[in-house]
Structures are given as C-alpha cells and as structure tokens.
Write a structure and sequence with these properties.
This protein is of the alpha/beta class. The protein has two domains: about 170 residues, NAD(P)-binding Rossmann-like Domain (Rossmann fold, 3-Layer(aba) Sandwich); about 120 residues, Orthogonal Bundle (N-(1-d-carboxylethyl)-l-norvaline Dehydrogenase, domain 2), CATH 1.10.1040. About 40% of the residues lie in helices and about 20% in strands. The strands form two sheets. Strands 2-1-5-6-7-10-11 form a seven-stranded mixed beta sheet, with helices on both faces. Strands 4-3-9-8 form a four-stranded mixed beta sheet, with helices on one face. Helix 1 links the parallel strand 1 and strand 2. Helix 5 packs antiparallel against helix 6, helix 5 packs across helix 8 and helix 9 crosses helix 10. The longest helix has 22 residues. The model has no long low-confidence stretch (mean pLDDT about 95). The structure holds ketopantoate (KPL). Ketopantoate binds next to helix 5.
C-alpha cells in the first residue's frame, strides 16, 4: 500500500497511475471521511476514466508515503502523521522549490526521507477532475542517510505506476536546476498575469532577468552547487518559457485561484539563503515582496 498525503493534482496523478489496489490517501488528522475519494482522470491519450481511491485506515501500514502537499503545508502535515508512522517507512517529498525538503530532513534525520523532482504535468481544472497534461519524468533521491538504502526499492515501487522514474544520487542538484527555472518564470507570470511565453517580451522581465541570474549564480556557488554563468541560467529560463509558452505557471494559477503561492520556497528561499551567506539579493527580494502583495500570503 502506497499512502499519499495531499490530494491535489500531483497526488491524484500518482493515485490514478499506480496499480489500482495500491494507493490510499491519508486523511487530515481528526478527519475520517466515510466515502472514498472519487474523481475523473484524463490520461495523456485523452481517454477519461473514473478513479476511486480509499482512505488509509489506522490498521493499515503503508510501505511508502508520498507527500504531495504544497511546500508551505508540508512540515505541519507531516507532524500530524509522524507519530502513527513507523520510523522505517520511506517518505517521498514532491514539493516545488527548496527549503521545505531541508526542513523535513532536519526534523527527522533518522527517517528515510527522499525528495522527488518531477516534470510530469498535471492540473485540476475543477475539484473532481484531474488532467495528465504532459508526459515527463521523476527523479528520486535521498535527503537523509537512511534513505540511501531504500532508494532502489522506492524507485521500483513508483515506476509500477507506468510513469518514468529514475534514481538520482544528487537530488539537491536537480532541485536547484528546477528552482532556477521556477525563480525565473513563476513570479513574472504571476505579476504580469500572463502565460509563460509572454514574459519574454515584457519590460519587467527584460529589466530584471540579468540581475536575477547574477544573484542566483552567486547563491549557487555559496550553496556548494557547480558554478554556472548567469547567461547560461538566463538561457535555460528562456528556453523553458518558450517550450511552455502557452502554460499557466503554478504560481499564476495559485494567485488566480486565491491560494497561497510557493514564493517563500522559490525566490523567498533565495532571499533567505542570501541573508545567511552575506549575498545581496535585491531582485529576488523585489519579486518575493511583490508576489506576497498579490496573494496576501
Ligand atoms: O514548473 C513550472 C511551474 O509552473 O511551476 C514551469 C516550469 C514554470 C512550467 O509552468
């Protein structure tokens, strides 16, 4: 049994993709829903099917827990279930950005905690509908020492879904690569209220992208990541913006739907890192402040 904490688009994508008898959602502490969770799932080939996923019962012991909550909710959500979870059960974190994974690993260093970085595209156009919008891949790697021994098994268990899953020894490096892209696209799309591709010609982006990439390049070196030229980072950001030109970013979608954004784990994470390393981050700070004003979180 694979337990999933967080029934948003990503949690529902994994629940719909795993073999039917495997997934169960974890209810919020104090809640015991009487009916299983049902929704309509649209696969990549356009076919639609109804998916019904049970809730984990107190007597069931999961072999693995996937955490697909928003970055800002993760530590609290895990604290709510940690006591009832044996310390040997692997926990896989699917959060965007950086910072929440470290918080969890520092809180439970003795547990097998893994992080995932995924390029699978999933969205939830209405509460009971989930769309697998784009094929991607998922990389899985250890955040704590005990996770090394379970990496291969966890990779196999998740690959049973039919989704592409790879083990990744340097998961932090991969999360950094994704963070660069999210830091350079998401706040601009939220502030300009536009699809990803439209940021490229906007004045806000043109005026600040080089400064942003210089800040990120310095921060990466300070964080022990390989040195990359600011121009290389800019190129990567612009390539992804072009390749996903029609997409609404997750941050723009959060603002549009009145949800808290993940800015504190994207540009906000970079601001905090800059503070701790003595590196000025005026562009990240400006973007984080302006997105905070947008979403009031
Ligand atoms: O990951 C994304 C997001 O929206 O969070 C990008 C790469 C920007 C694609 O929309």
């Amino acid at each position: 049994m694979i337990a999933i904490l967080g029934a948003g688009a990503m949690g529902r994508l994994w629940a719909a993709s795993l073999p039917a008898d495997e997934p169960a959602f974890i209810a919020r502490p104090g809640h015991s829903p009487s009916t299983p969770l049902s929704y309509n799932f649209r696969a990549l080939d356009g076919t639609e099917r109804a998916v019904t996923v049970p809730w984990l019962t107190p007597s069931q012991m999961p072999e693995l827990v996937l955490v697909t909550t928003k970055a800002g909710d993760t530590l609290t959500a895990l604290k709510g279930i940690a006591e009832s979870l044996p310390p040997t059960v692997p926990v896989v974190l699917f959060q965007n950005g950086l910072g929440s994974q470290q918080q969890v690993a520092e809180r439970w260093p003795e547990r097998p905690i893994l992080a995932a970085s995924t390029t699978e595209g999933a969205n939830r156009p209405s509460p009971d509908r989930v769309v697998h919008a784009g094929a991607g891949a998922t990389w899985l790697g250890p955040m704590t020492g005990p996770a090394n021994a379970v990496l291969a098994n966890c990779t196999t268990a998740l690959a049973n879904s039919g989704l592409t899953v790879h083990p990744e020894a340097d998961i932090l490096g991969r999360l950094w690569q994704k963070l660069v892209v999210n830091a350079g696209i998401n706040p601009f799309t939220a502030l300009l209220d536009c699809p990803n591709g439209d940021i490229l010609h906007a004045e806000l982006f043109q005026n600040h992208i080089d400064g942003l990439c210089e800040e990120i390049a310095s921060l990466m070196v300070a964080a022990g990541q390989p040195r990359q030229a600011p121009a290389t980072l800019r190129e990567r950001i612009e390539t992804v913006a072009r390749n996903t030109a029609r997409n609404t970013s997750s941050m723009r979608s959060d603002v549009q739907n009145g949800r808290a954004t993940e800015i504190d784990y994207i540009n906000g994470f970079l601001v905090r890192l800059g503070r701790s390393k003595g590196i000025a981050t005026p562009v990240n700070q400006m973007l984080a402040e302006r997105v905070h004003h947008l979403s009031l979180n």
